[in-house]
Write a structure and sequence with these properties.
This protein has 11 helices and 5 strands. By secondary structure, it is α/β, with parallel strands linked by helices. It has 2 domains: about 100 residues, no CATH class; about 120 residues, Zinc Finger, Delta Prime, domain 3, CATH 1.20.272. α5 crosses α7 and α7 packs antiparallel against α10.
Length: about 220
């Protein structure tokens, strides 16, 4: 039976898929082009669940490809197109996403993902920050402050660090101390080096989203625990 996942924003990574669909079993992520290129014979021979992650589909898209709705595929659709599937209602299961994918991100959202090994970088959050010069600079400033706080706590009491940074001792310090216990000084130094490098690249050349993306992916590998 085909499943139709109703969502307002495309779900493109496994973590969001599990969270929003409540489907935890093994599912293969494929593009819509890969779906179209699959032969009818292989569709019947391959029983793994497949999720088309890169496109909202509608009834016309599937009808044009002579799709058999008894097959075990999962497609993403907009709620407004649901009515078009009424004639195959016996062969489909409707899944409403449990919550909307976040449509606005803040620097601390990306920072928390970078430090957390269990969180993955979604295409959406990378796009949000790496395409916008304003957001990316905000993120760099925020991350630099977080790393500086951790670095200072290696050799100073939190009261001294708070005084140096002119800030209150609050949840930020609980977070910094937890990170301090899991990040080596060498990795911290590597992070500062990468920060300096991306800031120099940004200042010396045009804003480049590919450089930004490489920085975000690389800094996560250094800092996640």
């Amino acid at each position: 039976m085909t499943k139709l996942l109703i969502t307002e924003n495309l779900i493109t990574n496994r973590q969001d898929f599990i969270k929003l669909s409540n489907i935890s079993e093994a599912v293969e992520f494929i593009t819509f082009e890969e779906f179209l290129s699959t032969t009818t014979l292989s569709l019947f021979e391959d029983y793994d669940k497949k999720f088309v992650f890169d496109k909202f589909v509608n009834f016309r898209d599937l009808s044009k490809s002579d799709y058999d709705f008894s097959l075990d595929y999962i497609f993403q659709i907009k709620k407004s197109s649901l009515g078009k599937f009424s004639e195959v209602s016996n062969n489909i299961e409707i899944i409403e996403s449990l919550k909307k994918v976040k449509d606005k991100f803040f620097p601390w959202d990306l920072s928390n993902i970078i430090f957390n090994q269990k969180e993955s970088l979604s295409n959406q959050i990378i796009y949000e920050f790496c395409q916008s010069e304003y957001l990316f600079q905000q993120f760099l400033s925020y991350l630099n402050k977080e790393l500086l706080r951790i670095n200072l706590l290696f050799d100073n009491e939190e009261e001294r660090v708070a005084l140096l940074l002119d800030e209150k001792i609050d949840f930020k310090y609980e977070l910094a101390k937890r990170r301090l216990n899991n990040i080596s000084r060498d990795n911290l130094n590597q992070s500062f080096h990468q920060l300096n490098k991306i800031e120099r690249l940004t200042n010396e050349s045009e804003f480049n989203h590919e450089n930004n993306k490489r920085f975000v992916v690389g800094i996560k590998k250094i800092l996640e625990f």
